[in-house]
Design goal:
The chain is an alpha/beta fold. Helix content is 29%, strand content 24%.
Length: 502
Amino acid sequence: MASLPKVAQLTVTDLFCKRVSMHPEAPAISGGERTLSYGELEQRVRQWAALLRQYGLTRGQRIVLWSENRIEYVEILLAGARLGVTVACLNWRLGGEEQLHCIRLVRPRLALVSERYRQAFSDMPHGVPQVIHLDAPAAAPAGLESGPFEDVDPEDGFLILYTSGTTGLPKGAVISQRATIARSQAFASQYGITSEDGFIAWSPFFHMAATDHALATLLLGGHVTVHDGFGAARICDVIERERIGWLMAMPGVIEQMIDELRSRPRRVLGVKMVGAMADLVPRQQLSELTALLGAPYLNTFGSTETGLAPASAALLPAGETSLDLSKREFGWCRVRLVDEQGRDVPDGVAGDILVRGPSMFSGYWDGDRLNDQELADGWFNMGDMFVRNPDGSLGFVDRSKYLIKSGGENVYPAEVERVLLSHPDVVEAVVVRRADERWGEVPVAFVAHRENAGLTEGSIVAYCRERLASYKIPKEVRFLKEEAFPRSSTGKIQKKQVEALL
């Protein structure tokens, strides 16, 4: 892609340094007992960048980061931005084979690994030539001189976030500095988020939810509080003393938030909006959570590739149970609904949703064939079907690419089926979704095995546990005879009909 003239360019470092100059003493980021001001965070970012330079990192190269949520995670992201180095954020929930694929995919020059994952990394034949152990005394970058840095372009890759792949292995979505800035600007203008609004980054930094909005908060001048995972009590402590722009909540944690809020006499200081993925949350929970917080629920529909675009503009009123969950188009993108031939469908007719806008990713790393398919004609096909209602809202119909949304995680059945079919005694397998009160949806496996194999549900689950992240493991295994699987005229298993067996 041709670069814009220099006069039209702006980088993540440009905007972050502007915030540093405007209020260097203001709190920027907190984690545990530590809080760094914008000035202190900037100094740490410079030192990390200098350390990466000492390891020979230059613009256009990649590093992998395998760590829990911590202040250093954000420091390293911003240091990468300063150098034009792309940071691939490893999903610590993935199993060994998947994780090794993610590392090798991006051919990194350096790995940064926390103590929690040091042994798992060491046990892999990863081939990464250089490693920094984040908790080792020698890893501290303090005292290094920053020196001159690379001339960075906004289209340079900033992050690589991994998404589940329909072929059974994760894909690396490349998020540029341009996309990160656009997502930050949209976050401010669409929802009215300002420097007065903080953000609690408790969901993993390998997800867009945490990375997009932690970075947006810093670029807008707000305060980011970093938590190592969800904790209702810790989150409530923060929202009782600090104003929060968007309180991230998703299926699987909302009931815990409700229970914690009920138990507390103190009032929430102020939350502008809460939640995500309203479709997967019981209506009563939506009503109770929003009433306790006095904040509307954010009715999102986006992806790693798009950010909160294309359909995350709707806010559901606090305390109501009779809710219309139709989506509203995001203000910072274009949306089309098309048929199988790519023709726009009329209102009331279901079509695949296509998206275009400045928040879009730059394609999948090392995925030319996939990019040609999914970014055809300058539009990104999300693989989801919507219908446009008479009032202009968008009603979700189904996933044209069969996907299971489990507690905020994407589970493609092909990933799980690949593992099931690798079992020497399994002759057929299909994975479908089942509604779940806590997680929204969970995977269920239907399996046919060889005669006299003696497989049990427990043995199948144990086999999957050795090879898959926990959220991808089937929550139920049912056995069918091979001839009992419903198939199309071309022999493909019909997932809808399998679902009906549940």
